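User: As part of a screening pipeline, I want to sanity-check one entry by hand. Below is the sequence and the SMILES for zinc ion. Please return the complex as structure tokens so I can compare it with the automated output.
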Amino acid sequence: MRYSQLLIPTLKEVPSEAEVVSHVLLLRGGFIRKLTAGIYTYLPLGLMAIRKVEQIVREEMNRAGAQEVLMPMVQPADLWMETGRYKKYGPELLRFHDRHERESCLGPTHEEVITDIARKELHSYRDLPVNLYQIQTKFRDEIRPRFGLMRGREFIMKDAYSFDVDDAGAEVSYRKMYEAYRRIFIRCGLDFRAVQADSGAIGGNFSHEFMVLAKTGEDTIVICDSCDFAANKEKAAVVLRPAAEGEPLRVMAKVETPGKRKVETVCEFLGIGPETLVKTMVYKADGVPVAVLLRGDREVEEVKLKNLLGVADVELAGEQEVFDATRVPTGYLGPVGLALRLVADQEVAAMRNFTVGANEKNHHLQNVNLGRDFQVEAVGDLRRITEDDPCPQCGGRLSLTEGIEVGHVFKLGTGYSQSMNATFQDSDGQGKHFVMGCYGIGVSRVVAAAIEQNHDEHGIVFPVPLAPFTVIVLNLGGKDEKLCELAESLYGNLQAAGLEVLLDDRDERPGLKFKDADLLGIPYRVTVGNSYAKSGKVEVRRRRDGVMEELTPEETVAFLRERIGAELKK
Ligand SMILES: [Zn+2]
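Assistant: Here is the complex for your manual check:
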């Protein structure tokens, strides 16, 4: 296509409304425009990028045996009342009445509608398994829509729903979707991880979030440098290193520690390392105080504490609350003789002869041992994982990184089919509830996440598979007829080679053309300018790393066809 005929309203200034880089660049590059809070128009280039994602998603869903449907955006409230979600979903569900006063809502998701289809159209085990998907505009009335396409109110999503006769079948459907998602994000050219979304307490891992790695991501995840391990930081299991063998239990001793109330000052005063000290922290677990024991240099992971205690909420107790519960001055709390519920991190159970507060002002106890000197009601993995911990899967090196959730696969079970009484006749003649799974991809979010991961100070750096165009030809020939002809013929020949080409035929300064080409993030730039007269060559530059080649027009076509073909095949 010709730049002069496309609506690409690029901006020089950074729009003040934009907080994250994808939002800034999508606005500056003329990909999107805001209509109102959290609601955007996709201009030609934005829609092209969206369509690229959709096409990959569609191909892989079809390959996995899913069938495409398109469900309505407007949904009757009755269906949502059947599952109880009309109340539970909260204000993100946009509700309204039509002219006949029928209650309706705008679909933020389609479990109710699809389950209604299943109960009406799928009658026998012979009809199963079935996986139905759609690519559609969704609406969630976010209280604070932000970050452009990252968290809009209206967004494009692919959602799929599987129906199986039993758990085993549902697990097969789940695996298929997991694999399809891996293929999708690989084909999109993104660096991503599939993160276990629950801790696997109910057996098996049938919920994964697909995260695009990007510094600006909202979720912190732990990934392994050597294997495919990835987990939410709050849930990543810490591997317990074996205890130091052979150290004999020594006699407990009280020592004076005048005015030393912090881990560092106690350690400095006693000449010990924080790894030999155990700190006692008081949390309120659903309001009830619980003392948590942790090695001196570790931090509590509150999600893990909540799970160990089986409570809804934990909160660190304030100094006064601790004093009221224990009558021990701040800084001298310890487990020996403490009349409070006690839980310990697994590491503490493996330590010997450690130092703790003596429950008495200006005193600590040394050579304390769990089991001999005090008991706890539970021992578990309670601490935050660090980059110094080994990978729980392979022992490799871990790193902490940020991720943006772009997909989620989830085994639903029979929750929806039970509440909506959706059954089929099984081979034994019995009516049974469908076992369901649901699988989402935020299509518009993928475009934003791709930019969060791939950009530099000049603009977007699109992965080849998502770029609206893979080549931009800059005609810098001005009034030079020969150069203009060359640019035109290159444009034609590149298109004939099957490439998606944008010809910058605008009557603009070269500087502006270069700037816009960088801003739009088109993977390869071909510059037709004055140097051609001398060398017979044009300049081919890769956006990602600025690597340049001087090639004849014929070489250029062959080179780009080969390069781009290889990147699309990955
Ligand atoms: Zn590993």
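Points to compare against the pipeline: Residues 224, 226-227, 229, 391, 393-394, 396 surround zinc ion (CB under 6 Å). Residues 253-380 form a domain with the YbaK protein fold (CATH 3.90.960.10).
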